[in-house]
């Protein structure tokens, strides 16, 4: 047996758990796939005023069905590749990098960066193949993809360069913090991550996003005035209002806000502002756009972003604390490292990678909890729009959004409960229609 043989009870437990989760999620996918294979328009749609003919319904069903069929191919391949990498590729690459830099200064930093770089590029061909199929076959077939091959690879190159810059700076920083701050390193690691999160919240929209999309002031003067009036009505500190060229990549629509404290900005995808190809009228009238934005203001009014930041902060703190307890406990910790095939290696990123795998069962439960919380937040934001007299335009706006994005009109309740942070149209409309009837 070599000194980096893979195997042991902790690794076996992780594999068993991963298989259970994979099978469970596959079962949920099959449930949803069966719902998307039906051809009859569900009677429930008419109850909520969703007027959809059989042709439109089948277009939506086919899109959802094709996505799941793609998932049935991609999912098992990626799962088997991950298991193969776990047993053979990842430990082998670490030992290769360790041999290459043996005896050099800053050994752990060099080996870690080399190891992560090699892993990334060994995984890259499979990821690129699936992304190409998703964009240029699946999304293209259903009329959503607007990318060119040149834009696809341009985005990829930019993303790679950014990952090298940030990875090359932040990974060594984390290694230094853990190795240099003693037994209570988790406090310093947590503080460092918090500072980086806040910095990134400013850097990303101001410097990174503009590398990929063009942001410009909203051109519709009338709509711009109405949005500023809406913000003033609710004392939302709107400082800038943008439209972004999302249509150069996809015809999917979206709107969001970002910014710190009293410096908020709203962004509308240009796909929200386009005309209907048949009628030559705006797909969304101003009242519908304002209702959708009122929903977004509801997230701000109910402090959903702050809530998520606090939960994320607590989550990071607990992760680093448990990381220290589990992976820096002497011989028992080193025994775990050996089971993953890294022998007597003592390296921060190796230990952190293993710990995140061991923590995955708890992480899955937390992930489900966050999904349910996010769903609750969506309904609460809808209620804010309703309380401001915008239920009717919100309902019609959501119907148009669902139609344009070919949102799932026949969701399986179990699949939706587990996966959808944003409830499907039928689930969103149920409380909205009830609120409208009560108001009447």
Q: How does this structure look, described?
A:
This protein has 440 residues and is mainly alpha-helical. Helix content is 70%, strand content 5%. It has helices spanning 9-36, 44-47, 54-100, 107-141, 149-180, 185-208, 221-233, 286-301, 304-327, 331-339, 348-358, 360-387, 391-405, 413-419, 425-439, and strands spanning 215-217, 238-244, 255-258, 264-269. It has a four-stranded mixed β-sheet, with helices on one face. The termini are far apart. The model has no long low-confidence stretch (mean pLDDT 92).
Write the layout of secondary structure elements.
Elements: H1 9-36, H2 44-47, H3 54-100, H4 107-141, H5 149-180, H6 185-208, E1 215-217, H7 221-233, E2 238-244, E3 255-258, E4 264-269, H8 286-301, H9 304-327, H10 331-339, H11 348-358, H12 360-387, H13 391-405, H14 413-419, H15 425-439
Parallel strand pairs: 2-4
Antiparallel strand pairs: 1-2, 3-4
Summarize the structure.
With 440 residues, this protein is mainly α. The protein is 70% helix and 5% strand.
State the separation between the terminal residues, measured CA to CA: 76 Å
Uncertain ranges = none
Approximate helicity band: over 70%
How is the largest sheet built, in terms of strand order? Answer: 1-2-4-3
The global form is globular
Strand count, sense and barrel status of the largest sheet are: 4 strands, mixed
Count of DSSP H/I helices = 15
Structural class: mainly alpha
Please compute the radius of gyration using only Cα atoms. Answer: 25 Å
Mean pLDDT: 92
The percent range for strand residues is: under 5%
What are the secondary-structure elements, in order, as H or E? HHHHHHEHEEEHHHHHHHH
How many β-strands, per DSSP? 4
């Amino acid at each position: 047996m070599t000194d980096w043989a893979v195997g042991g009870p902790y690794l076996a437990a992780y594999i068993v758990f991963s298989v259970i989760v994979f099978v469970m999620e596959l079962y949920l996918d099959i449930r949803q796939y069966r719902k998307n294979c039906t051809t009859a328009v569900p009677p429930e749609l008419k109850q909520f005023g969703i007027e959809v003919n059989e042709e439109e319904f089948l277009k939506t069903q086919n899109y959802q069905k094709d996505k799941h069929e793609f998932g049935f191919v991609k999912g098992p391949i990626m799962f088997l590749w991950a298991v193969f990498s776990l047993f053979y590729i990842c430990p082998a690459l670490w030992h290769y990098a360790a041999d290459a830099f043996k005896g050099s200064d800053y050994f752990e930093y060099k080996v870690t960066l080399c190891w992560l770089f090699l892993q990334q590029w060994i995984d890259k061909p499979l990821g690129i193949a699936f992304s190409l199929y998703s964009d240029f076959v699946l999304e293209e077939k259903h009329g959503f993809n607007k990318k060119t091959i040149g834009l696809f690879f341009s985005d990829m190159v930019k993303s790679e360069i950014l990952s090298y810059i940030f990875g090359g700076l932040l990974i060594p920083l984390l290694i230094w913090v853990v190795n240099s701050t003693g037994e209570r390193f988790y406090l310093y690691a947590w503080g460092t991550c918090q500072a980086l999160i806040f910095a990134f919240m400013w850097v990303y929209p101001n410097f990174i996003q503009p590398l990929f999309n063009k942001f410009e002031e909203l051109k519709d003067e009338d709509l711009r005035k109405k949005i500023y009036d809406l913000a003033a009505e609710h004392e939302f500190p709107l400082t800038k209002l943008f439209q972004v060229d999302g249509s150069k990549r996809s015809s999917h629509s979206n709107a969001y806000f970002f910014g710190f404290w009293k410096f908020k900005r709203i962004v509308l995808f240009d796909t929200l502002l386009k005309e209907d190809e048949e009628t030559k009228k705006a797909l969304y009238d101003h009242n519908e756009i304002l209702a959708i934005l009122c929903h977004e203001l509801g997230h701000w009014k109910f402090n959903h972003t702050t809530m998520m930041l606090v939960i994320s902060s607590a989550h990071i703190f607990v992760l680093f604390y448990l990381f220290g307890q589990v992976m820096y406990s002497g011989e028992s910790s080193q025994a775990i490292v050996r089971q993953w095939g890294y022998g007597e290696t003592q390296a921060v990123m190796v230990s952190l990678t293993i710990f995140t795998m061991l923590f995955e069962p708890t992480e899955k439960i937390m992930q489900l909890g966050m999904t349910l919380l996010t769903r609750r937040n969506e309904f609460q934001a809808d209620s804010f729009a309703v309380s401001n007299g915008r239920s009717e335009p919100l309902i019609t706006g959501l119907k148009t959004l669902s139609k344009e994005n070919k949102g799932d009109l026949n969701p399986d309740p179990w699949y939706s409960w587990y996966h959808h942070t944003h409830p499907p149209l039928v689930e969103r409309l149920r409380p909205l229609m009830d609120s409208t009837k009560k108001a009447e």
